[in-house]
Amino acid sequence: MKIFRLLVVLVAVMWFFQDASAQFRSRYFYVGGSLGVTNYKGDLDDNFTLKFTKPGVGLVGGYKFHPHMGLRLAFNQGWMKASDAQAATDKARIRRNLSFRSPITEASLCLTYEFFANDRKYKFRPQYTPYLVGGIAAFVFNPQAKLGNEWIDLQPRGTEGQYLPGCPDCPQPYSLVQIAIPFGVGLRYSLTDRIDLHFEVAMRKTFTDYLDDVSGEYPDMDALRASDPTAYLLSDRIDRSVYPEGAKYWNGIRGDKTQDDWYVMSMVSATYILDWVKCPKFR
Q1: pTM listed for this prediction
Q2: Dist. CA 165–CA 161, nearest whole Å
Q3: Each residue's pLDDT tens digit, 141-181
Q4: Does 3.40.718.10 match the CATH number of domain 30-274?
Q5: How many alpha carbons lie under 13 Å from residue 183 in its C-beta half-sphere?
Q6: Residues 116, 131: Cα–Cα separation, whole Å
Q7: 42 neighbors 214 (Cβ within 8 angstroms)
Q8: CA-based end-to-end distance of the chain
Q9: Residues 131-154, buried b or exposed e (16+ Cβ, 10 A)?
């Protein structure tokens, strides 16, 4: 029995060192850049409409620490837009007539899982492999709308009554810095011993309904006009020549506050492997 236990321990130790050696062999750092597109889903576009697609760029750096897994840090800059007037199939949205644009600056930390493992040096990695990605991100945004020839920042105006005095039922001002949960799929393809291409589509689950500055109800429009005439004009964009009652046409409903907004980044990245990790020698 003692001999059997000794054999089990010996096998476990050999397996540990073999696995550790394999992981060290497959470890490497990489850096690169990304180009792609950004799409948004929210109160002004609930289908990631292609006509509202905007560009995206980024920088990425990562560490492959396991035959299957890696850790990745990325900085991305994207842009979003949507317009009720361009939602040609939805007459109600066209009547509401809201629109916005916003930059979105994101920093993310994600784990990647490659389906095809590599337990050897990076130059022997599979030429291609699908992978999963998921993690956490922080992002900054700033919704704007055009009034005449000028683009106006919407958050400081309080278009849903956030800054109305003496209004306890009005929503609180929202923060322009938020957290998101990125997750998606990708494909890594090796061009050379050190250069990879990554094709990736990743959704971002946010915890705000104000990427587009639209969430719940119209505020007391008379009070908003008295407090801030510019906010009044930005809050209710309904064509008064057709619908003189303006916001009352909607029975006070401005957006769907039961669902938070999303955005998605579809990126192509080129990365270069840095051979900084040396395989340990076991003697």
Answers
A1: 0.85
A2: 9
A3: 999 999 999 999 999 999 999 999 988 889 999 999 999 99
A4: no
A5: 3
A6: 8
A7: yes
A8: 30
A9: bbbebebebebebbbeeeeeebeb
